[in-house]
Amino acid sequence: MSAPGESGRLTPAELRTLFLFEKLTDEQLDWIADHGGVRHVAAGDLVIAEGEPADEFFVLLSGTIALTRRVGQDDVQTIRTEQRGVYMGATQAYIRDEGLERRYLASMRALDDSDFFVLSAEDFGWMMREWFPMAIHLLEGLTLGMRNTQAAISERQRLVALGALSAGLMHELNNPAAAASRATGALRQRVAGMRHKLGMLAAGKVAPERLDALVELQEDVIERAAKAPTLTAMQAADREDELGDWMEEHNVTGGWDLAPVFAQGGLDIECLELIKAKVVEPGLLDQAIHWIGYALETEQLMSDIEDATGRVSSLVASAKQYSQLDRAAHQWIDVHTGLDSTLVMLGHKIGDGVKVVKDYDRSLPQVPAHPAELNQVWTNIIDNAVQAMHGAGTLTIRTYREDDHVIVSIGDTGPGVPEKLRKRVFEPFFTTKAVGEGTGLGLDISYRIVVNGHGGDIVLQSQPGDTKFLVSLPVAEQASR
After folding, report:
1. I want to staple 462 with a disulfide (CB 3.0 to 4.6 A). Which of 24, 42, 63, 417 is the partner?
2. What is its EC number (predicted)?
3. What does the angle CA 297 – CA 303 – CA 305 come to, to the nearest 5 degrees?
4. Alpha helix locations (H) across 281-364?
């Protein structure tokens, strides 16, 4: 490819035929003619490459060109044109941004033999700043202002999201913690009651061998309870009635209060008859059943405490997984781990009105990714889906493989996004939410994380009652350019 001017020059009169230069003075056109030149590019040749230093400004004189962006392993065509005078390349060379190396944002290829008028980025930047100082000040203010605004709002959005996640996590942690606290208090009372009943049994002058048999029976009852099948609500109610009637017939004090404990433990009339057979002295049956009831309640309360503390540990593990505080920034990951931890973190926000359906392909390979960044993507998309459904509907998360990509589909049953707005949902600051409810940066950030950061793609498909965001992630490490 030749340098500017090697293939020829344009006269000031020819430059004036281009809409960019038609209002310039003769002196300005002379300067441009002296500093720029014509470059010919053969059909099929690459003119500029995405990611390379943006050191030239191009104006199309003739031919057809196409601009493409790299998405994963594919080049996606964004523009195809043959309009004379269109420009591309170092289009922001006039903005002073010390220390920042500008690079081409897209690749440009000549689809047929094409000619360009070319200025170096340095000359183009000098020309714009010297000839149009007021316009440059306005453009710099607009560009830098939008950048600063985006950064400030993005930071604020992260803080708001962190606050919402923290509030949700605290709410989720409070439930099992409170349950464990209640169960511990009740357990203390039951143990005290069991000690009291044991003393009463001993005071009843039970023969040692009889007491040993009763202790063995207690262990047998607890083992039965551990293995008992879970009853439905109707079955449990029927079992409580049967046990209550039996205890009433045998003059067990507070039998109807004990019946639910035995029923919840999975015990039946046969078990009560076994207890009766072990206790020969009729006067001790009441004390024995109460003692075993306390033992059952103790086991149930300890199970409740174990479940509650296990839930706390699970939530802490999910929060740790979500934040990725103890893991490398870039690694090979299973996308399901991040999806699950995100659902846990957003559990309070999702609420009871939204049904979550997970259709995972667990055979999917791991993908190279920044897991904390992908968790931000899942958070943004799931949060949008929940808001779109106004707290009632179905959230469907599906994973599958398509060629050399892993696809994560996150769908909701909300009203959908109108067709005229679908192309704009990834634009910075664009939002369909009411004022104060959204910044319009969540999907923009998600797009940049997936496309620019991971070489993938993110697509919206929407119709009323069925909206999906499809996130495509390559299964192979992206080659550096």
Report:
1. 417
2. 2.7.13.3
3. 105
4. 285-323, 335-345, 347-350
Non-local (6+) Cβ contacts of 350 within 8 A are: 343, 356, 382, 386, 395
Q: What is the pLDDT of residues 284-307, one digit of tens each?
A: 777 778 777 877 777 777 777 777
Residue 474: strand pairing partners:
405
Helix (H, G, I), strand (E, B) or coil at 57: strand
The CATH code of the domain that includes 58 is 2.60.120.10
Indicate whether 308 and 186 sit together in one domain: yes
pTM over 0.85: no
Distance CA 383, CA 343 (A): 10
Domain hosting residue 124, numbered range:
12-131
Segment 37-60 mean pLDDT:
90
445 & 468 share domain: yes
Contact between 228 and 266 (Cβ < 8 Å): yes
478 to 367, 369, 402: CA distances (angstroms): 11, 10, 17
Residue type, 334: D
Q: Are residues 221 and 308 in the same domain?
A: yes
Q: Is residue 156 part of a domain?
A: no
Q: Of 286, 315, 344, which one is at a domain's C-terminal end?
A: 315
pLDDT at residue 439, rounded to an integer = 38
Contacts of 398 (CB under 8 A, 6+ apart): 359, 360, 408, 409, 411
Radius of gyration of the chain (CA): 36
